[in-house]
Amino acid sequence: MRTYKLILTMITAAVVLVTASCKKDTDFLEETQKDNLNSSNSLLNPAQFQLMSASFYTYVQRFYNSADGPKDGWLLGLGTDVCFDPRDVTSKYNNWSIVNGTDNYSGDWFNWQYIIIKIANTIIAGAANPAVTWQNDAQKNATIAEARFFRGFAYRNLANVFGDVPILEAPVTAPRNDFTRNARADVYKFAQADLTFAAANLPLTTTQPGRVVRAAADHILAEVDISLKDYDGAIAATTRIINGTDGAYSLVNARFGTRASEADKNYYYDLFVMGNQNYQTGNRESIWTAQFAVTATGGAIPGGVTFSTRPLIERMMWCSWYGQTKFGYNGTAVDSTGRGVAYVRPTNYTNYTIWRNSGTDIRNSETCIKRTYYYGPNIPASVGRPGQVANKALLTTRDDTCIYIYPNWSKFGTDKHVNATPDAGYVRNFYIIRLPETYFLRAEAYLGKNDAASAAADLNVVRSRAKATPVAASDVNIDYILDERARELFGEEFRILTLARLGLVYDRTRRFGSPESAASVQQYNNLLPIPQSSIDLNNGAPIGQNPGYR
Length: 550
Fold this sequence. Notes:
CATH architecture of the largest domain: Alpha Horseshoe
Helix content: 25-40%
Strand order of the largest sheet: 1-3
Shape: globular
Number of strands: 6
């Protein structure tokens, strides 16, 4: 697929349209550029709109699977309070001082959102064409609602980390170089209107795994409402999800799925077992998932990986224990060790601080976070014996504890890999929205109204499921909510977006980040840089850079 590298090229280019002449299930994922196609002559029936909407999901997949290395960890909080790049202390986000307008991590994020906006605007404009034959108004409105969901989602993604950005309300059909940035609050208001429409017109359920539904719209709407200090709106939106108005959702509190019979696991572990993520297969906690799992037909409508042959989450997040020769391993990965390469390591805050006095919290159990490691088959007899708990006194170098051994969160890998389907990998779908986060958003909205008791009640719904000690209302503040988000959602939530939305990138990184990140982060890093390429090409009007960046 063609990805436009520069925003101005991207938003002025001829719109890529997909026709209904696909010959196999995955043909709709291939884009063909034709300069004479536009929404008035190529989007003429609902099937064509459906095919074009698949592009939304392909770009969402890029959020999680765009490169090999630490890049995909950026969205999860690379260089902030929760994780860092352990292999190069001088790399960007370990060293915030080198983050600038040429940064491709945040730059790709910027560009991807405008591609999504471009697709959404094309669909919305095309749906207004009187030549389109709709079955009924509900079908038309649902099509527009999906596009408006993604447009609102994209503007939320932009406003959270970049602040002021240009709002494009309609397709750009002629070259322009005079875009101007809209105020962050106006971007949120634009997203709010889109998400409100989506929440009223998306279906409650779908048979297509990964496709957005009403609850997903209300969830993102609630976050946008909080950004606008519309706490009552956020409470109303999250309550529609929690009380069943938006569909039947509930926290998992019993064993389920393909490995439910294994007595040494628990139901939190089950949430991340391959094949267990989709609502359609019984996971009522799942609100929206990015689809990666390989199926008999090659994937559902949003299916298919975008980089390599599988998502590289285990490779990125797990330590490389099988490469630690002094503990009896030879560099050959097996199921018992996993296949981690340690491109992204959780901080000590994530691995240890948030679990102080955690008691019976199952999220911190050995099942869910592996903290005990054992000697391998090649361990010298003078050191120990195979299968014996490894002596931590042998961990004497930085690499020992930053690359070869650190707590492995089970949600990022498996002890039973898929044999050669594909590449003996850990291939599961990724949660974009899971119900616990909805409770956390409502708790945040209650806190905004100075109702700590109601905020604590929502937090305790999730903590009770985890068998954790309830939190007292007097202990609830935004730091506590962020700590609970890390305990429940580390590696799932868009942590950089959460911290930037709250203006806490600097504060939280200074207090809890890796030593290098904490020393280099500055106040201005609460917003990220606008891509310099977009600034340079927009020579018909000053678009400007966020303060602090050169």
